């Protein structure tokens, strides 16, 4: 079985990715240090429902399917931990099987502090974001270079690296003609937070490793993700992924749906013209799988813009209101002062053809798709804490 490492496997995206790949017959190892859980606890932020730890969820998965997901609870900012994943000396926290160790053919890197608001909370949060995110990426690159240069690294980037330029956003690269000469460069980056700055630095680190060490890397510039359920998660409640709806870790679609369910006005920042690219959780899994199946070449930094549709915040609020009103919720929209330094009206036209070319079949947003999320959130309406919607963080 092909061995895949999933770094940051306790997260909103990491756990469903592990389930999907395990279900398809991959030999899956998850690594996480529960830093997101610890941050949420320290900030007194609660997800929509409690989530068992990785060991309990992996045991449930094995009981339900007979498929083993190996778990290592450890800190990837420690190089010796990362190195062990390629050298056969992995101190697994839990595994059911005794499969012989194999060097991973693919590494899926989600293992970063993922919140832009948290990254600008204060100097300590900013420093943690930079040190954690960059040290983990640096360790992964060195471990692959030193022990397995044929391993394909699939790195989760973000569309936020690009900002909102007044030109079309290409997929990672830009061809430039200047004074009679031409060249190809990484598309100019314009970070909107310390978190996004760390992701730009990731890309620069990776580009160095690809040019000099001839590694093979796919960088997925992902937009905000919405959704709760995948085919695997539907098997049993014990398999749910973490779902935050607060200002710090919750994405705008998910947050608005929770607000609608609990009769809280939708909190639109400023004028609501901020436009971004979005995708369903199910499509994140597709994009990762397609990237595994069609890996980058040695010495190639392949960049995909991982979105399927673009919406403004006003568009999202309108869609959520429409579905909420059809359910008798009488959804209100409240435009509040924008805590972020960002353009509230801007040009936004990103390209996103690459993943379609390798087989992505998009899940477009429909009223049925939104209704499914409403149904799931409604099951936990008594858990919702409206105090979490506004955390007071300003850029």
Characterize this entry briefly.
The chain has 395 residues and is α/β, with parallel strands linked by helices. It has helices spanning 14-23, 35-42, 54-65, 79-87, 116-119, 123-147, 194-213, 252-261, 281-293, 313-326, 354-357, 367-378, and strands spanning 3-7, 27-32, 69-73, 106-109, 152-158, 173-178, 181-186, 216-222, 225-226, 266-269, 275-280, 300-306, 309-312, 333-336. Helices cover 36% and strands 18% of the residues.
List keywords for this structure.
three-stranded mixed β-sheet, single chain, 18% strand, globular, alpha/beta, Rossmann fold, 395 residues
Structure write-up:
By secondary structure, the protein is an alpha/beta fold. Helix content is 36%, strand content 18%. The strands form four sheets. Strands 3-2-1-4-5-8-12 form a seven-stranded parallel sheet, with helices on both faces. A three-stranded mixed sheet has the order 9-11-13. The model has no long low-confidence stretch (mean pLDDT 97). It has helices at residues 14-23, 35-42, 54-65, 79-87, 116-119, 123-147, 194-213, 252-261, 281-293, 313-326, 354-357, 367-378; strands spanning 3-7, 27-32, 69-73, 106-109, 152-158, 173-178, 181-186, 216-222, 225-226, 266-269, 275-280, 300-306, 309-312, 333-336. It has one domain (3-388): Rossmann fold, CATH 3.40.50.720. The radius of gyration is 20 Å and the shape is globular.
């Amino acid at each position: 079985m092909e061995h895949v490492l999933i770094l940051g496997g306790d997260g909103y995206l990491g756990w469903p990715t592990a389930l999907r790949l395990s279900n398809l017959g991959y030999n899956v190892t998850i690594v996480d240090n529960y830093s997101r859980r610890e941050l949420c606890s320290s900030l007194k932020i609660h997800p929509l429902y409690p989530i068992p730890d990785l060991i309990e969820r992996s045991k449930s998965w094995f009981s339900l399917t007979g498929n083993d997901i190996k778990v290592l609870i450890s800190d990837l900012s420690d190089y010796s931990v990362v190195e062990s994943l390629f050298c056969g000396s992995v101190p697994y926290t839990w595994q059911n099987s005794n499969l012989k160790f194999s060097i991973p053919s693919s590494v899926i890197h989600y293992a970063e502090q993922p919140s832009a608001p948290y990254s600008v909370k204060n100097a300590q949060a900013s420093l943690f974001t930079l040190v954690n995110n960059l040290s983990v990426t640096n360790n992964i690159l060195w471990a692959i270079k030193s022990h397995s240069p044929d391993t394909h690294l699939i790195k989760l980037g973000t569309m936020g690296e690009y900002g909102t330029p007044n030109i079309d956003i290409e997929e990672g690269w830009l061809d430039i003609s200047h004074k009679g000469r031409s060249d190809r460069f990484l598309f100019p980056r314009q970070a909107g937070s310390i978190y996004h700055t760390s992701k730009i630095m990731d890309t620069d680190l990776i580009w160095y490793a690809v040019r000099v060490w001839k590694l093979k890397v796919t960088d997925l510039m992902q937009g905000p993700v919405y959704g709760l359920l995948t085919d695997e998660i539907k098997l049993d409640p014990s398999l749910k992924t973490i779902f935050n709806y607060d200002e710090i870790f919750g994405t705008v679609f998910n947050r608005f749906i929770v607000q609608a369910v609990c009769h809280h006005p939708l909190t639109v920042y400023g004028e609501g013209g901020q436009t971004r690219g979005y995708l369903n959780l199910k499509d994140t899994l597709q994009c990762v799988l397609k990237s595994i199946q069609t890996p980058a070449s040695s010495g190639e930094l392949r960049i995909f813009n991982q979105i399927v549709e673009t919406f403004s915040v006003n568009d999202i609020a309108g869609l959520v209101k429409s579905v909420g009103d059809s359910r008798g919720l009488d959804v209100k929209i409240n435009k509040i002062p924008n805590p972020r330094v960002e353009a509230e009206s801007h040009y936004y036209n990103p390209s996103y053809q690459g993943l379609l070319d390798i087989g992505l079949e998009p899940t477009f947003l429909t009223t049925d798709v939104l209704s499914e999320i409403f149904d799931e959130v409604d099951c936990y309406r008594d858990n919702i804490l409206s105090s979490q919607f506004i955390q007071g963080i300003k850029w």
